[in-house]
Amino acid sequence: MDVPELHPDLEPIAFLVGRWEGAGVGGYPTIESFNFGQEIVFGHNGKPFLTYTSRTWLLDEAGAKVRPLGTEAGFWRQLPDRQLEVCLSHPTGIVEIYLGEVVFNKIELRTDVVARTGTAKEYTAGHRLYGLVNGNLMWAYDMAAVGQPLQSHISAELKKVADFVPEVD
């Protein structure tokens, strides 16, 4: 299979492309702290956006998978002057639009718009940091939800396990 050439607009975020796997920790005032496993896939088809999927699962103390947790999918679009737009959707009825900036191998995103269905939990804002550190993708997510102010929710360290994942046309 031919690997499509990465669109030149995506050069600032090219380091994200591939499949990443690892583990992280989470907590929030309304829940108990937990450990989770994660897979993130950033793909492309040669057009000026990256596709994005993330799957997480609860881990027990030994690091074994217990059950699925969150899933999200979306698109990352690089804009001029190292600006970035990210559109994410969740099966729990939440859709987010993030705006941010790429500086070298560091990305900072803040929600610009949050929309949710009538059955979705109350969620009002998010802040995400992504960075490439010693070849690993480190990321952290702060959340404002269920009456709580914006604060730390989850973070993880992921290792790249595949350089390119083909997208279906």
TrEMBL record:
| EC assignment | 5.99.-.-
Q: In which pathway does it act?
A: Nitrogen metabolism
Q: Which reaction does it catalyse?
A: peroxynitrite = nitrate
Q: Does the keyword Iron apply?
A: yes
Where along the sequence does the record place the motif called GXWXGXG?
18-24
Q: Name one GO molecular function term.
A: peroxynitrite isomerase activity
State its cofactor: heme b
Pfam families assigned: THAP4_heme-bd
Any binding details for the cofactor? Binds 1 heme b group per subunit, that coordinates a highly solvent-exposed Fe(III) atom.
Spell out the InterPro entries in the cross-references: Calycin, Nb(III)_bact/plant, Nitrobindin, THAP4-like_heme-bd
Q: Where is the THAP4-like heme-binding domain?
A: 9-160
Name the UniProt key words of this record, in alphabetical order.
Heme, Iron, Isomerase, Metal-binding
Q: Where does heme b bind?
A: T30, K121, H153
Q: What is known of its domains?
A: Forms a 10-stranded antiparallel beta-barrel structure able to accommodate a hydrophobic ligand in its interior. In fact, this fold hosts the heme group, which is located in a wide surface cleft.
The record's comment on protein family reads: Belongs to the nitrobindin family.
Q: What does this protein do?
A: Heme-binding protein able to scavenge peroxynitrite and to protect free L-tyrosine against peroxynitrite-mediated nitration, by acting as a peroxynitrite isomerase that converts peroxynitrite to nitrate. Therefore, this protein likely plays a role in peroxynitrite sensing and in the detoxification of reactive nitrogen and oxygen species (RNS and ROS, respectively). Is able to bind nitric oxide (NO) in vitro, but may act as a sensor of peroxynitrite levels in vivo.
What this protein is called in its record is: Peroxynitrite isomerase
Which species is listed as the source? Answer: Streptosporangium minutum
